[in-house]
Amino acid sequence: MDSCHFLKGSCSVVPSTVMFPLRVPIFAVLVSLTVGQYDDYDYQPASQYGPSSANCAQECECPINFPTAMYCDSRNLKFVPIVPSGIKYLYLQNNLIEEIKAGVFDNVTAELRWLVLDHNQITNEKVAKGTIDKLTGLHKILFSFNKLTEAVIPPSKSLDELKMMNNQLSKFPAGSLAGMQNLTSVHLQNNELTSKALNGVFKGLNKLVAIDLTNNKLKKLPSGMPSSLETFYGDHNDISSIAAGDLKELPKLAYLRLAYNQMTDAGIPAGVLNVTSLIELDLSYNKLQSIPEINEQLEHLYLQVNQINKFNLENICKFSGPLNYSRLKTLRLDGNNLTHADLPHDSSNCLRQASDIIFD
């Protein structure tokens, strides 16, 4: 690829903090998607903690040094064992569990903090009434890689992290997240959710900073997203447009990813992306024919593999001068109908901070 450069001036069982960034490099946002499963749970195998305590299900281990944790992972279990009182952190990942029977959580309805059910075979029909819907103290529910078609939400006002990736979700019960004022991150990627199914679901969640809806069936951004939101991932959907008011309601949005969608110039009203809070904007692998209007504060813009045939410098810098210039550090334009020769001769002042401008 051809690149031009402008230089400036010439297990612990203790719950982890939220993995999405508050204005930090974007790779930190991806940690929860790329690290190993044990790191994702701040997990250490029970064998590292010595013998099991007496207050434990016989199928599992409850280390004496960490008596509030019960490790039932990777044991070919086909059911959730009855959880004894005193357990706060329950690990059930990597089993063959198909159902959750009534009564298994009756001893810990208010005290269970973490419930990890990833990589099982659970369907909605086999989640008995009076199980998860009684867990009023949960902080984290990790229910990814199962066979759910509708989100299963505990009634806990303390919930801070919800992960239901890689299911078959097409339904999200209206009002199921209402009042969850501690919820900070929601991971729903790799499901079958539509914009309609999610409209209003996140409304009023004033601590929610990160939503990942990668690889679903969205045609537009869900309505009612909270003003606290800082990160939205909507890659690999069918989004064709952004409504004029969508981003005005998100004054803290810093990271917006909409790669691999159906975005066209007509679907981006004038000024809709001219948002001072944005740090990173990814519109790669869409159908754009021009560089959209952005704010001068944007630092990373990804437009590779579109149909852009003109370098619209005025959409990056309306005015160029000693104090008026773009803060772009990265601009990717490879996979378009542009070459280095299309870069305007007067772009060096506007793009004085850019270290990577990439063409084919």
Distinctive features:
little secondary structure; 14-stranded mixed beta sheet; sulfation; 4 helices; 360 residues; elongated; disordered N terminus; 4% helix; leucine-rich repeat
Please give the count of helices.
Answer: 4
Task: Tell me, rounded to a whole number, the average pLDDT.
Answer: 88
| Radius of gyration, taken over Cα atoms and rounded to an integer in Å | 23 Å
- As an assembly, this protein is single chain
Globular, elongated, flat, extended or rod-shaped: what is the shape? elongated
Largest sheet descriptor:
14 strands, mixed
- Per DSSP, what share of the residues sits in E-state strands of 2 or more residues? 5-15%
Are there runs of 5+ residues with pLDDT below 50, and where?
1-38
Helix content: under 10%
Class computed from helices, strands and strand pairing: little secondary structure
Strand neighbour order, sheet with most strands? 1-14-13-12-11-10-9-8-7-6-5-4-3-2
How many strands? 14
Subunit structure: Binds to laminin.
Family: Belongs to the small leucine-rich proteoglycan (SLRP) family. SLRP class II subfamily.
Organism: Salmo salar (Atlantic salmon)
Keywords: Disulfide bond, Extracellular matrix, Glycoprotein, Leucine-rich repeat, Proteoglycan, Repeat, Secreted, Signal, Sulfation
